[in-house]
Amino acid sequence: MITYLFGFLSFLAIMFALMVVLSKNPVHSVLYLVLTFFTIAGHYVLLNAQFLAAVHVIVYAGAIMVLFLFIIMLLNLNEETEPHKNVWLKASATVAAGLLLVVLVGSLRGAESIVASNTFNPNIGLIENLGKTLFGEFLLPFEVSSILLLVAMVGAVLLGKKSIK
Amino acid sequence: MSAIEVVPLNWYLLLSTILFTIGVLGVLFRRNAIIIFMSVELMLNAVNLLLVAFSSYLSDSKGQVFVFFIMAVAAAEVAVGLAILMVVYRNTKSSDINVLNKLKW
């Protein structure tokens, strides 16, 4: 049952990701990317990371994708204005990506052997354990990431101003 | 009952690799800068999925905390990147990356 669910979600994720790359209309690409993010959130739930699944949907589907859609609407991009590479560049890009896939699969063979067998703790993704780790061991990176978000906000506002003297 | 008990870790490795490769394909395949941004997001998500998979299989919550930080960095990156894209569009009236060849030798 779970195996079938995994296969179904994986199939959907790969198909939607391919549609992001291959669809001609940028708005369709954004919508397919939202669907891809939902399937990845489903994978998080299957992996007992429920809180992370919720955060993923809120941050990616809720915030980042809305930003993308907003920019595409603002720039008024559609199928007619979409630039295209020529056929040879597309073919070579596909070949290069396929070769990268072969190399990555080959180099990741045997990586599953670092996992010890059958000591699974199903509570690891709950908010209590994550909070203890985040505010204990990772307190300094947590505070530094708030500075990062502040810098990003200042930069975005500065870039978005009408003219920079 | 969860996927950890029945699905081998190899399958997650394969799925993340395929998603990452599709992201790379998007960067190489398209000329629209926004689609390239979206492909970068796809690559980040493939890595996130693998981090969560390893974290669950190793029963170690540090991997999932790391995914939080990646999400924060991704949000900051998208905000700044789209602001830069707006400036580029304002100056060139296009989101085609081939227009941006002033630094090309």
Keywords:
heterodimer; A: mainly alpha; Four Helix Bundle (Hemerythrin (Met), subunit A); 73% helix; B: 105 residues; Helix Hairpins; 4 helices; elongated
Notes on the structure:
The complex is a heterodimer of chains A (165) and B (105). With 165 residues, chain A is an all-alpha fold. Chain A folds into two domains: 86 residues, Four Helix Bundle (Hemerythrin (Met), subunit A) (Up-down Bundle), CATH 1.20.120.1200; 44 residues. Chain A is 73% helix and 0% strand. The radius of gyration of chain A is 20 Å and the shape is globular. Chain B has a single domain, classed as Helix Hairpins, CATH 1.10.287. Helix content of chain B is 78%, strand content 0%. Chain B contains four helices and no strands. In chain B, helix 3 runs antiparallel to helix 4. The radius of gyration of chain B is 18 Å and the shape is elongated. Chain B starts with a helix and ends in a 13-residue tail after the last helix. At the A-B interface, helix 1, helix 2, helix 3, helix 4 and helix 5 of A face helix 1, helix 2, helix 3 and helix 4 of B.
Give the assembly state of these chains: heterodimer
Q: Structural class, from secondary structure content of chain A?
A: mainly alpha
CATH architecture of chain B: Orthogonal Bundle
Mean pLDDT of chain B: 88
Unreliable stretches covering 5 or more consecutive residues of chain A: none
Number of domains of chain A: 2
The rounded Rg of chain A comes to 20 Å
CATH homologous superfamily label of the largest domain in chain A: NADH-ubiquinone/plastoquinone oxidoreductase chain 6, subunit NuoJ
The overall strand count of chain A is 0
Low-confidence parts of chain B, pLDDT < 50 over ≥5 residues? none
**What is the third-level CATH name, the topology of the largest domain in chain A?**
Four Helix Bundle (Hemerythrin (Met), subunit A)
Kindly state the percentage of residues in helix of chain B: over 70%
CATH topology of chain B: Helix Hairpins
